[in-house]
Amino acid sequence: MSSWSLKRERRGAPLFPVNHPIRIVFDYGLILLGAFIMGITFNMFQLPNKIASGGISGLSIVLEEVLGWVPAITQYAFNIPLFILGVMLLGKQFGIRTLIGSIAMPSFIFLTSDLPAATYNPLLASIFGGIGIGLGLGLVFHGRGSTGGNAITAQLIHTYLGVSRPLAIAMCDGIVIILAGVLLSFEDAMYALIGLFVMSKTLDVVQVGFSYTKVAFIITDKTDEMSGAILKDLNRGLTKLQGEGGYTGEGRIVLMVVVGQTEVIKLKQLVQSVDANAFVIISDTNEVLGEGFKIPA
């Protein structure tokens, strides 16, 4: 591998460009794997325990319980027309990847419908069901795909009603959970909310990873001393940002430094020793790319 490729890989850039044939095959593989995990999770956790955590899959659980409709067929019946409607009204942005996801998930639900339930404890089912759906959906998103359904409905609401996408998705999920509360039971709706919460958190982890690093912004009257202490005692690089006091209008230097979790206490002690009146903001950062930063062992 060339030195350019190695440098590019260290910086976190993808090894293959987005339109490279290997990358395209890999993306399709992620979409299918994610849909497979979601199908198994649906049949082993959600369906047996009536965990209707939003989306077309949640709606199919409600309709299966109330009308006896087969969930996979229900999802086909909603996903395919929604995909066609999305293409007609919103253009070709809903391409082959969304079509594959829209068909793959109900197909895997149909193929794995004979799997036994993993548990009949609704709390465990809502938690592990949320983990499985979040993991599968995260893989689908990594493959730059979609499972259709809610995503298309939310996009239509966003485009034609001006509602933000997160709010539109929340509205769609909320309607399904309300239906579960009315047509199934209030307790089922509460478990569905737990599942939806766990799913969203798992999806965050899959997409951006665990937060192992922190970013600190430091405002101090002793900029030079603070910079020297961070560079020498903490052995961390830093960036000086030009700021301005909102009340005084005076120019200020803001120091920005990224540290590992194990270095946070040391950083706070160092800041306190240099300037007890320093103003410090420390927040999570999920990903740091580029040379010169390694998480301490």
UniProtKB/TrEMBL annotation:
It is a multi-pass membrane protein. Residues 236-290 form the DUF2179 domain. It comes from the Bacteria. Gene3D superfamilies: 3.30.70.120. It holds the Pfam family DUF2179. InterPro entries: DUF2179, N-reg_PII/ATP_PRibTrfase_C, UPF0750_membrane, YitT. The keyword Iron does not apply. The keyword Transmembrane applies. The chain crosses the membrane at residues 21-46, 66-87, 94-111, 123-142, 163-184. Keywords: Cell membrane, Membrane, Transmembrane, Transmembrane helix. It is found in: Cell membrane. This is YitT family protein.
